Amino acid sequence: MEDQNINSIDERRQKIELYKEIRRRKNMEDWKARLLDEYRQTKERYEKLKKFNNKMDIESRCKVSHYHTLPDEEKQRYNVERTRSELLNEQQHAMEVYLHFLELRMELEGIEY
After folding, report:
1. Among 4, 31, 51, 98, which residue's beta carbon has the most beta carbons within 10 A?
2. Which tops the pLDDT comparison, 89 or 75?
3. Which is more confident, 51 or 3?
4. Residue 79: enclosing H or E segment and its boundaries?
């Protein structure tokens, strides 16, 4: 009887350890899935921002060629737009660097992206 109790306790411990290992592996897989989701969402936002920045850059280049002929109010508006554009370009660059680090992490983990 006592041997059965010991075996039963050992079986329970083994099952608990197995359950913990399964949870640990699942959490690891969840982590990889979250990393991939983070990459895909950031990449999508980056591409949208890049497209917008390219459009803004073209418009800005057209205006700058006529800057000296613009009225003062237009010059002020242009300067505000240029500041916004510079900030958005810096944000785009930061996102590009972040994407690079996510890609490196996924390479290390063997995650295809």
Report:
1. 98
2. 89
3. 51
4. helix 72-109
Domain of residue 92 covers 2-109
Q: Is 91 exposed, middle or buried (0-12, 13-18, 19+ CB in 10 A)?
A: middle
> Distance between CA atoms of 77 and 84, rounded to whole angstroms?
11
Mean pLDDT of 8-15: 84
Q: Return the pLDDT at 63.
A: 76
Q: Among candidates 80, 81, 89, which has minimal Cα distance to 49?
A: 89
Side-chain half-sphere exposure of 45, counting CA atoms within 13 A: 15
Cα–Cα distance for residue pair 23/25, rounded to 1 Å: 5
The CA angle 71-73-78, to the nearest 5 degrees, is: 95
In 1-113 the beta strands, taken as DSSP E runs, fall at none
Q: Determine the Cα–Cα distance for residues 49 and 54; give it in Å rounded to an integer.
A: 8
